[in-house]
Sequence to fold (104 residues):
Amino acid sequence: MSLHPASYERGYVGSKPRTKQVQVTTSKAQLMPCSPDWDCLAVLLKADDQNSGNIYIGGEDMTGTSDGYKLGPGEAVMIPVDNPCKIYAVSDSGTNKLYVLVVQ
Fold:
């Protein structure tokens, strides 16, 4: 089944949400490698409630914690994107957990 933007506008939320947990370190990295298996409508990201630091989210051009979108412990954001491999993350200290929900 192919999803088109018109389907999204009608409120169709996809047929197979997928999840992943990512360990985010102080080195910027893609959330996951690019694969057509992960093509999607949107990605919901939630920082673990028990994280000791903040996670910063951005695109490939994000340089680090100075220009990323900050997610504190327990915070979440939804990003309309066609593949989660376009999203990068970095932690400001240690290793922090990020929950990823991909809506396909």
Remarks:
- The domain at 16-103 is CATH 2.60.120.770 (Jelly Rolls).
- The radius of gyration is 14 Å.
- Residues 1-11 have pLDDT under 50 and may be disordered.
